[in-house]
Each structure stands twice: as C-alpha cells, then as structure tokens.
Amino acid sequence: MPARPAPAVPERPRSGTAVTGERPQDAPARATPASDEPRDPAAAWQVSTARRPRARATADVNATEGSRFMGAMRRGTARGAGAAAEQLGNVTLRLQTRLKEQAAAQRRLSAIVWARRAGYVALSALLVWIVVASPVLALDPEQAEVSGFGTVVDPADVDAVIAEYEGTSLATLATSRLADALREVPGVRDATIERVWPRGLLVELTSREPVAAVPDGEGGFWLVDAEATRVGRAGEAQESLPVVTVPVGEDHVRVLESVLGVVNQLPVALRERVSDVSASTEDTVTFELRDGPRVEWGSAEDSALKAGVLQVLLDSGQARDASVIDVSAPTLPTTKK
Length: 337
Fold this sequence. Notes:
With 337 residues, the protein is an alpha/beta fold. The chain has helices spanning 41-132, 155-163, 175-183, 253-265, 268-271, 303-316; strands at residues 144-147, 188-196, 200-207, 212-215, 221-224, 230-234, 243-245, 274-278, 285-289, 294-298, 324-326, 334-336. The chain starts with 40 loop residues before the first helix and ends with a strand.
C-alpha cells in the first residue's frame, strides 16, 4: 500500500513579525533552515531509515580513511624505527670497530711489555751465569801473583791453599776466607788479597821472621818470631839466629817473651853478633856476643836505651878487654874483666 504524503506544516511566524504572510520591509529576511525531521513519527522513521545508508557509507569512508591514516602512521613509524635502527647499527658497528682496535692495541702493548720483561730476565740470567758459573771469571791459580814469602814461608804451601779455590768465580770468591787460610800457613803472619780481573789474584804476605832458635829437646830447634810464635823448625842452629835457653813449660812463657822482646829491640848489626841468650826469670836476661863479652841485660825495660849504651861501649874500646858488660842499669853501666 503506498504511503500517504505527510500534511504540510505551516511555518511559525518569527518573533516581532505579524502573521500576514509577508516579511517586513524594514528588516532583512533571515533564512531559517527548515527542519528535515518530520513531526510525524512515521515520517521520522522513514527519514531515519533513508539516512542510515548514507551514515553507514560515511562511517565506512571514515573507517577507510582512518585505516589509511593509521597505515601511513605505521609505515612512517616503521620507517623512522628502521632509520633509527640503521643509525644505531652504524654507531654500534663503529663502536665495535673502535673496541676491537683498542683491544688489538692493548694486546700489542702487552706483548711489547712481556717481551721486554722476558729480555730483562734472559739478560739477568746470562749475567748471573757469567758471574757465577762461567769460566770467564773462574780463578786460575797460575795467574795468582804471590809476594812476601820471607825466609821461612814455603811457596808450595801457599800454592796448595790457593789451588783449593781453583774454578771459583772471581766475583763470588770470599777473599777474607782465603786470607784466613793463608794465615794458617807456617810462617805467615798476615795476607792481603786483591782480585785481578778476569781470573787472577794479587797476594801479598807478611811473613813471620824468626828472631831466635829454641831447642826442641830432640836435637833440633824451633824457629820463633818476636811474638814467640813458632815459624819453622831447623835441624841445627843458624849462625844468624841466637839460641835461646829458657825454662820449658807454660809457667815460663813470660820468660821467653821477655827474652824475645830484648832480642827484637837490638839493632840488626848487634843482633847478628848475639850467639846465645838465656834467662831464668824475666829480669835476668843475659846473652853472649860472638867474639865478645857476655852482656848482663836484666829485664826488657828500657831495652832501646840499653842497646844504645851497649853500642857506645863497644865502639869506644872500653869493653875491648872486658869479659862482662852490665847494662841492667843503663845510666850506670859497668864492665868486668
């Protein structure tokens, strides 16, 4: 059944306007949009039904445009993210390259440092080997020069002591120990040692020269120095040494020391004329002169003065016929025929 047309609704007059069907002449006409909505519910339903396709189409258009916009936004965001990722990748790549270069430089530096350390260790080991074990600095007894043997030191004894240190590095050689060993050699009072690089030694001995011969009770003689130290042994008395006769035993050591002190104070020319020296106590030293008188010396005190007085008496001729010269009191010497 066809729908009936809706009845026309008369327009309502605007305020201030008479319902005459004509607009006032003094005021411009204002167009009032006519409402599209019919006052009738049935007509309104028809209008709403007619508008739904257009609204749906508009919504679809809006949805499409929104989808496009969102797609564009997503593509833009993706491109921005890609560009940022690319830039970040470039930075990361450069950073990795820089870190690799730094690591390589650090490895080279470490290698150089360790190479230097290894070189230092090798050089130190070489120096230690040269100093301690190398034959370059090993002592050669043939290159040892020794002086100061004196009259009683046996060179063979000295050579035997030095030979014990053959092959020892000159840098580590204990010269003080070697000097102590040389002092044990009979007749050696002291020894000084100097290194002569690379393999030699310079040894200077101070010998103990005998000043008297003491009978040993077996037909021989001990040779003693001024300190009463035995420096050798002889089968018979030497003409250049006086024979000392003193009591034997530890209780009489001071007597021997007193006698040797007197002999040591004598001038060399006078000492060579002394043949026999004897003493029973420290204050009764006497000695015989070869081709001369006996001398009463007394104690070892004022030995230098006594020696001078004795020499004057011998040179003056006053003791030419004397058998005894007494200088025990040097200020009052006496002679006896």
